[in-house]
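Course assignment 3, question 2. Fill in each field.
Student: A.L.
Task: Predict the tertiary structure for the chain below.
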Amino acid sequence: MDKKIRSFKDLKIWRKGIEIVKDTYGLTESFPDKELYGLTSQMRKAAVSLPSNIAEGFKRYHNKEYKQFLHIALGSAAELETQFIIAQELDYINKEELENISEKLDHLSKMITALIHKLR
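Answer field:
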């Protein structure tokens, strides 16, 4: 039997978003100090935006508003993936790390898209 969703914390997509935040913080920990207020900060903000927008949208009254926040989360996922590609190009992460996080971002994006379609 499926568990009733009572809170955004019950959403699989929110939990996946939190996982990506933790991964992002871990991967950016070893970035050069010169990137602290540059790429590191931007990536962490984009990552935090994922579960934050999923949560904020969940608390909105209308599905139209919820979908708007889910679209913002999708944009943040694309932004973050681009930033990880840049990080790999700059040799801050390796190809395997990029592939791993890109796979997680792609999976989350598909889950968000499915939820958007379900809310129609």
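Instructor remarks: The CA atoms of residues 59 and 66 lie 8 Å apart. The mean pLDDT is 95.
Grade: pending
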